[in-house]
Amino acid sequence: MPENILKKVQKEVGAKIDIFTDSNTAHSRYEVNKKNYRTVLIKNIPFIFTCDEKDKLVILKNHSIAIRDDLITQVEPLEKIKAQKFNLIYDAGKRGGTVVTPGLINTHAHIHMYLLRSAMTLDEEKSVDETISNMAAWQKFETEESLFYASVGDLTEQQKNGITTTLTHGPSFESGEIAAKITRHNLLNAVSAVSNSRPSNSPEMVEKLLQKKNQFYSTPAISLHYLYKTPFATLRKVKKIIDAYQTLLTVHLAESQNVAESTLRTHGMSEVEVLKKFKLLNSHTIASHAIYIKPKEIIELAENQVGIVHLPTSNTLHKSGVFPFWQFNDANGYKNISLGTDSVVSKNQLDLLTEAYQARITHLYSRTIKYGTLFKMMTANGARVLNLPDRGKILPGMKADIVFWKLRDRGFVPYDENNPATLIGNLITHGGRMVRDLMINGKIIVKDRRHQFVNETKLLDVLQKKHMEMRGRKEKRVDFHT
Ligand SMILES: [Zn+2]
Fold first, then answer.
1. Rounded to whole angstroms, how far apart are CA atoms 257 and 354?
2. What pLDDT, on a 0 to 100 scale, did the predictor assign at position 479?
3. Residues 94/36, Cβ–Cβ less than 8 Å
4. pLDDT tens per residue across span 33-88
5. Ligand 1 centroid distance, CA of 191 (Å)
6. In terms of C-beta density within 10 A (0-12 exposed, 13-18 middle, 19 or more buried), how is residue 36 classed?
7. Quick check: 287 pLDDT over 80?
8. Ligand 1 center from residue 94 Cα (angstroms)
9. 440-463 mean pLDDT
């Protein structure tokens, strides 16, 4: 990993805020006893929402959480927490209190595309199809360096919306790696084994990353953007790599009618049949969109525990079609359905709460997806899909990825105090909003709404500059041609 690039990005947009700043006052929720904290107590939490060991949604009232290093050690009423002097104490009962949930899990993103925000309005006089096909052209005008800043921009926005773990696909491993390091995000960093924008990408290149996976902050994985663009010889190699390194494969599956037909034309079979032919129908495969598939294939995907990512906003904006949610559910596939944001080209706001809401209203005409189900899709199901059994729940032994949402907030109030489950409905229907605080792997990442490792003022200025530079390069090119 080029250390000089990391240093450069860090210098330009990085920040390291002293944890003592604005702590230890009567007003603050934070009591810091040791700067390099390893033990944390989150006390007096009015409501914790989580799934339990059996995946049942539970609401814990007036509990506290003890953490050592990156692990949750206890979730109990305060009097049952083992007495010790904690390095850091967070009082979640203060000033109206906070609702605590597990960090949300985003199973489909393209973080390097963040500079293309507002892309759907770049060519608004054209049809949606033309606009989308122009995206690739826009991307050509991004520099390698700009992808680093884009990825930091994308991950920090996700974090401020409560997301702590993300699976991203893209041509560049480096940009994800640097951004994960700077933002401390849990990143599954899937690199395209075949790429239009980077013809040098190959299964061998991804294998080299997997051989060195312990050296990286992010976790390498393999991505195949479209199966119709992937030759069988490449699929054979990919299968071998997956078996050798037990890594994850992520694909866009039957995203549009066009893609489904192209696969039939190129390979003489459907995308599910291609996966089956190469023995890739299993829990190491993550299939996004999954719209144009036959009923028999839905059963096969469900039976073989293939991870599914539902992206209702992206599907709607791109006029792709409707994901057969209830068919998957009826085939017992529900546990492997998660939610993703996609890139800012497909959903301007990088959060999962509005995505859950979109899922609710998309399928309402058939049956209603309950709020508890949507909550699971954002947490426990997401962890299962990404093969991360120690994330997505607030239980002893799990990684300490925790979101703090302010309770005295328009998104929550009013709610039924006798039925706090109403808070989950409020959280989802009120939609995306910024977290008050956020913890990843036992460390505070967002404190009092401020990112602790990224200077957002500087970041936004850099992103704006890079965006305009990209536009400038495109303008010149257009002038040159006309
Ligand atoms: Zn995508």
1. 26
2. 45
3. no
4. 999 999 999 999 999 999 999 999 999 999 999 999 999 999 999 999 988 899 99
5. 13
6. exposed
7. yes
8. 41
9. 96
Please give the C-alpha separations between residue 331 and each of 15, 245, 303, in angstroms, as whole numbers.
48, 30, 8
Structure token pair of residue 309? 């990512």
Cβ < 5 A residues, ion ligand 1: 342
CA distance readout (Å), 391 to 105, 211, 476: 9, 24, 47
Taken in order of first residue, the domains within the chain and their CATH numbers are 17-102+394-451 (2.30.40.10), 104-385 (3.20.20.140)
Helix (H) or strand (E) holding 369: none
Cis peptide before 420 (omega within 30 of 0): no
pLDDT of residue 480: 40
Going from the Cα of 176 to the center of ligand 1, the distance in angstroms, rounded, reads 15
Report which secondary-structure segment, H or E, holds 188.
strand 186-192
Taking each helix axis from N to C terminus, what angle separates 456-481 and 128-139, rounded to the nearest 10 degrees? 100
- Ligand 1 midpoint to CA 116 (Å): 14
- CA of 478 from ligand 1 middle (Å) equals 27
Percent pLDDT > 90 in the chain is 80
How far, in Å, from the CA of 426 to the mean position of ligand 1? Answer: 28
DSSP 15: -
How much distance in Å is there from the Cα of 209 to the middle of ligand 1? 22
Ligand 1 centre and the CA of 356: distance in Å? 17
145 CA to centre of ligand 1 in angstroms: 22
Residue 160 has pLDDT above 90, yes or no: yes
**Helical H segments across 268-346, by residue range:** 271-277, 295-303, 312-317, 325-330
Residue 442 C-alpha to ligand 1 middle, in angstroms?
30
Task: Tell me the whole-structure pTM to 2 decimals.
Answer: 0.96
